């Protein structure tokens, strides 16, 4: 499914893991709308589930956008609604901390946007190069950014999993965004931190380069399970394929004023 000159092939999967007794992750795949989401809930049984499911439920009504700005506006409006629902649930439970990390990939014609909050991640494999598009909202990342600790120290930092942002825990959704232009052959990977705790970046890149999207998701989840899967694990893989030329409408250059 896709619009403009690209068609999108998607794989997705989630698993409770080896240690946890329930899954607080939720995901959404809507190629027709150009939206893919992974949300990792926090707050314990029912609370974390509620938060991640609220995000997915609200965003699932996004429909078909008319433009890239329209898509982003629709997304943020629904995310704001989900944020409010989570805050209300927290108040109903006596002020308990409830929330969810979020990563979202939005695409419209030749443009993409990544929107995130927390430590779930989006990666991009392009022309053989694999890079993390998002930057973790974590205490350890802030220490790295400031130069207070080294990469090696960060690997073993005792508060490594302490996040500094999540949906539902502040006055409004606190997200970061990055934007770009798509290329044929791009492969995006969205995941909760249950994957990155057990699988190295170069291993992910190798799997993405050698597997179809669904097979890649299955393989990455199986690797995580084989290594102990201390957390829930959720993976979405989106491959951007060139649409056959005879079905591409028009050759107008990309108008950035109409972009994200």
TrEMBL record:
PPM-type phosphatase domain sequence ranges: 9-240
Pfam families in UniProt: PP2C_2
GO molecular function: protein serine/threonine phosphatase activity
SUPFAM superfamilies: PP2C-like
Protein name as annotated: Protein phosphatase
Organism annotation: Litoreibacter albidus
